[in-house]
Amino acid sequence: MSVQSSPAKEVERSDEFDKKFDNGEDVSKYLDFSKANRPGREQKRVNVDFPVWMIQSLDREARRLGVPRQSVIKVWIAERLEKPHP
Questions:
Q1: Is 44 part of a structural domain of the chain?
Q2: Which residues have a Cβ under 8 Å from the Cβ of 73 and sit 6 or more positions away?
Q3: Structural domain of residue 72, as residue ranges?
C-alpha cells in the first residue's frame, strides 16, 4: 500500500508513521486502499460436474447451515486441503 499524497494526510517521515502504527494509532488515513490486495487470494472460476445425489446432499447441508452451496463446497475443500498428509 502506498502513502497518499494529500498534504493534509501526509506523514512527515516514515519513522513517524512507524511510531504511530507501533503505538496502536489508526494509520488508515495515511494509506491508499484503492489498490490494496491480499497476495495468494486471487480467485479463478472453475466448473465441476457433480452427481445429482451429491448436489442434493450439498443443498441439504447448505440449507441446514443457512449458507449458499458454494460456501459449503469451499469450506469442505479447504478443510480437506489443510489436513496434514502422512
A1: no
A2: 58
A3: 52-82
Please check whether residue 14 lies inside any domain of the structure. Answer: yes
Cα separation, 70 vs 64, in Å, equals: 14
Angle, in degrees to the nearest 10, between helices 69-82 and 52-65: 100
Is 73:58 a contact under the CB 8 Å cutoff?
Answer: yes
User: Is residue 73 assigned to a domain?
Assistant: yes
57: which 3 cell numbers? Answer: 446432499
Q: Is pTM beyond 0.90 here?
A: no
Please give the single-letter amino acid code of residue 38.
R
Higher pLDDT, 82 or 2: 82
Confidence of residue 12 (pLDDT cuts 50, 70, 90): low
Query: Maximum distance among all alpha carbons in the chain?
Result: 62
**In a domain? residue 77:** yes
Strands (E), 1-86: 2-3, 31-32
Q: What is the pLDDT of residues 26-53, one digit of tens each?
A: 988 888 888 888 888 888 999 999 999 9
